Amino acid sequence: VLDLYDHPPANGRVVCVDEFGPLNLQPRAGRAWRLAGKPARLRATYRRTEGVRHMIAALDLSTGKIHYRIRDRKRWREFLAFLKTLRLRWPGQRLYLVADNFSPHKHPNVVAWCAANNVELVFLPTNASWLNWIEPEFTGVRHFALNGTDHHSHNQQDAAIGAYIRCRHQRS
Asked: Where do the H-state alpha helices sit in the chain?
């Protein structure tokens, strides 16, 4: 994996892929601008009546751009659908997808589709998810889009994540 990072193949594109979540609608503590003596108050209780969601994301190492989808589940079906969007984004290039050993990444249908569509899955060693370069990007999402928030719907939360990623792309 490190050799792939240091020497990306000329005939392809290296993309780091992983899931982030669960994204639930609970109030999150964090830093925020407030007038002196008027701290932000968080609800003491909350209900997960709208369930949780998950973000599947990919970091293109050649451009530094993040591509993502937010879904209700994180099964192999959602992962494969996301890989198909990546394939459409870069037609004609071989994709080298760096991923952890999460079972949906290794599902036989995912592996078969990758073999048939010029996509190579590069799995990280067990307990080495920190080698996936998308992990620090998730820290940025958590810090800038989720901390100090009290979203009342998944649409609000999705919009905050999207706004952060668009801002990140403009600055990179």
From this structure: 2-6, 76-89, 108-116, 135-141, 154-171
* Residues 45-60: tens digit of each pLDDT: 556 667 889 999 999 9
Instruction: Assign 4 to helix, strand or coil.
Output: helix
Q: How many CB atoms lie within 10 A of CB 39?
A: 9
Angle, alpha carbons 46-52-56 (nearest 5°) = 145
* Closest alpha carbon to 20 in 143, 112, 110, 108: 143
Q: Which residues contact 2 (CB under 8 A, 6 or more apart)?
A: 131
pTM value is 0.85
- One DSSP character per residue, 104-152 reads GGG-HHHHHHHHHTTEEEEEPPTT-GGGSTTHHHHHHHIIIIITT---S
Site of tokens 């008027």:
38
| Residue 71 three-state SS | strand
Each residue of 102-136: pLDDT tens digit?
Answer: 999 999 999 999 999 999 999 999 888 889 999 99
Contact 83, 121 (CB under 8 A): no
Residue pointed to by tokens 């002196």: 36
